[in-house]
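Reviewers of the previous submission asked for a worked example of the structure-prediction workflow described in the proposal, so we include one complete record here. The input consisted solely of the amino acid sequence. No template or homolog information was supplied to the procedure at any stage.
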Amino acid sequence: MREVVPGAGEETKGDDTLRSRSAHPAFGKFCDQIYYPVLEATISRPYELYVHGNSDTTGAIRGVETIATGLEWKRLREPLSVVGGVDAAVREACWELGAMAAASLMPA
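From that input alone, the workflow returned the following structure tokens.
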């Protein structure tokens, strides 16, 4: 999987919303630009959150959750927060996060 930061209009295509982001200010800027255009189009969409930071992820998680609450997205599970290096356990946790997101998008 590669990280994708969509341009204007790309964020509402399809029935899913999948983002992989580090704790970086560019994500906040992206959300500021897309907030109103996707406000009604994405209500009740499920989301999961993975955040990787060098020393702390608290602010990044709080920021994304604030945006997701405003968009009325439904969190599927607690955010996966990774501080420091990435090892096999972190990769496994990320795989589980992705598997749960994929399963939530399957038709009932």
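DSSP finds three helices and five strands in the chain. We consider this example representative of the routine output the project will generate in years two and three.
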